[in-house]
Task: structure prediction
Amino acid sequence: MNKLKLFISLTFIGILAFSCQDDPVSSTDHSPVLPDEPYNYMSVMDELESFVLPQVVTVGNNEIETNANSQVVLPGAENVDLLLESDEIVTLGRVLFYDNRMSANNSIACASCHQQEKGFADSFAKSEGFGGQKTIRNSMSIANPIAKRNFFWDGRAGSLHQLALEPVFNHIEMGMESSEDLIQKLRAEAYYKELFTAAYGTASITQDKIERALSQFVGSIFKRDSKFDEGLENGFADMTETEKHGMALFFSAETNCSSCHNGVNFASPTSTFNNPYAVTAGTTNIGLDMEYEDKGFASGKFSIPSLRNIELTAPYMHDGRFETLREVLEHYNDGVQNHTDLDTKLKRNGAPVKMDLTEFDLDAMEAFLRTLTSRTLTTDARYSNPFRS
Ligand code: HEC
Ligand code: HEC
Result:
């Protein structure tokens, strides 16, 4: 080793030792572990292209009308902020999503309330955020958001880009006062210099860059590999008779489930995103109560959530009032309240619907809802915590 190299190495070790002592916050054990080559996220864009629910699905000799609303518009050139730009930007987003440096006292990350093993929801009715404060609503599962057009329980955000930073600043969740505070904190971490440079060509950190990376990571969370998706390809050959019975009920006029939980994501068919005249922002009232303490969008109207991965995301509803899918189904079967704004799809002859489902029907619908769980969402390394090595 020549003298110059030795000098450089010793200086480097010196700097390392110095920085470890000097700066206990960015200790070396808080660094993400990332693959040498970034994971492939861009493939999500290809998978999206043919992501549609047909109007009619064929099950053996039977045909089931799905009610699919063809208005669901997938991202295209006109929705640029929903497109994934590069694997490097999404990788940065992944680190931000899991980094507790995003909160004021390094205690909370997005992933605290959006956990991969819970379908990117959590298991609490209300989640604990910054300083032990509770969220006012149930944490939402992040399920194929790139194919969604209304976000939050009250449908208040129309695009991923718009909502990505909201939890950081406007919620009690993370306690950051301003984007300047956040940028200062991120600047202190050596790994962000590398990650921002890889993503954007320079190490400079701006709110816009944080927002783009976070929303693109969230947008990259995409799966179409549930038993139901496989069934679309193979005529539901692997579904049990019970699951098929549940599917027929789900898509039937008798239950009307698919008139609201519609299309590829089993979510709201309407959106504010492409339709500024949509006055309900994809929300509606399902008669949970006669009086709503939390009014949601207005008058007890809440976002029609996606049912993908619903098996993983208990408890249910905006306030997490139901522990199990069975309780949800029992609500629809005979618990719907006659609220003045109850959606007409849950009325029959002007009164709240009584579905008269049998125990077998309820079992079958529960079994069908379980076929909407992705086979790989909870284990895909691309969406996993990089701080856990
Ligand atoms: C303390 C818990 C908590 C933390 C931390 C948190 N969230 Fe959330 N998240 C929630 C809750 C609760 C909702 C529903 C809020 C509402 O509707 O008012 C939600 C909703 C969302 C949604 C909407 C999903 C949909 O389909 O409509 C997205 C996306 C989201 N959060 C992303 C993030 C990101 C990104 C971060 C980190 C910057 C984050 N969240 C941090 C609890 C949390
Ligand atoms: C009129 C529209 C409408 C119909 C019909 C409807 N839903 Fe819903 N569904 C909603 C809305 C809105 C919510 C959220 C309500 C809330 O939290 O206040 C919801 C919530 C749910 C949830 C809980 C989701 C979560 O993430 O917590 C499940 C499960 C569900 N519905 C299943 C069904 C099934 C099964 C049927 C048919 C029996 C059905 N829904 C019929 C609008 C509807």
Remarks:
- The radius of gyration is 23 Å.
- The pocket of heme C (ligand 2) is lined by residues 255-257, 259-261, 284, 286, 288, 302, 304-305, 307, 310, 313, 316-318, 325, 328-329, 332, 343, 345-346, 365 (CB under 6 Å).
- Residues 157 and 163 are 6 Å apart (CA to CA).
- Confidence is low (pLDDT under 50) at residues 1-27.
